[in-house]
Specification:
Pfam families: DOG1. By secondary structure, the chain is mainly alpha-helical. It is 74% helix and 0% strand. It has nine helices and no strands. It starts with 7 loop residues before the first helix and ends in a 7-residue tail after the last helix. The relative contact order is 0.16. The mean pLDDT is 89.
Length: 239
Amino acid sequence: MATTGTGTGTTNFTAFYNTWSDQLHQLLRQLCSAPKPPTTQDHIHHLNHLVNKLLSHYSEYYRVKAAAVERDVLDIFAAPWASSLEKSLHWIAGWRPTTVFHLVYTESSILFESHIVDILRGVRTGDLGDLSPSQFRRVSELQCETVKEENAITDELSEWQHSVSDLMGACTDVDQMIGRLARVVQKADDLRLKTLKRMADLLTPQQAVEFFIAAAELQFGIREWGKNQDRQRDFYPSS
């Protein structure tokens, strides 16, 4: 049963998040130094290995977060480890799953334009700017599915929020309501992880590595900018 706690669980999760983020930095360096494009079978195996490491790293994050949600879902919503900017971008205690598609389309467009001359000459780059028609179709289909699931979870949260007036009733089971909220967060996190895995499956090893580089750089860029803004407002402790 999800409960509201003393904050100890959130302190533990904050420590975990900081360590997890440091490890993601290390993985990002490995991704950036990987051979792109791969020219041997060993290179392809190495890229696949890195993609699997990234997916395992994200899976571990959501495994630990699920336990934290079960302990105190309200503290997870408060997200004391995040900057004000990060919190303003949150959808149900995390990033929107459909952000994945905006990122892929943006990176694909940037790389396509940078290689336009080579592409017109028939030279294949193999990167995100070189998505095949079949890949574009499958990405579009996955996007439609994800939008439907995201909207359904949003509606579920809205129903929970509308039911908050029930808290004023004498017979209201507060723990039951908090449990409902925890289940909404779990569904949102499940969709986030599922979207990452399914996108990785649609891409080649090189493209998947480039996608995870872009995702990590976006995450770290938003975090650093947000922390700097908070420091200027004396909201964020200097470190």
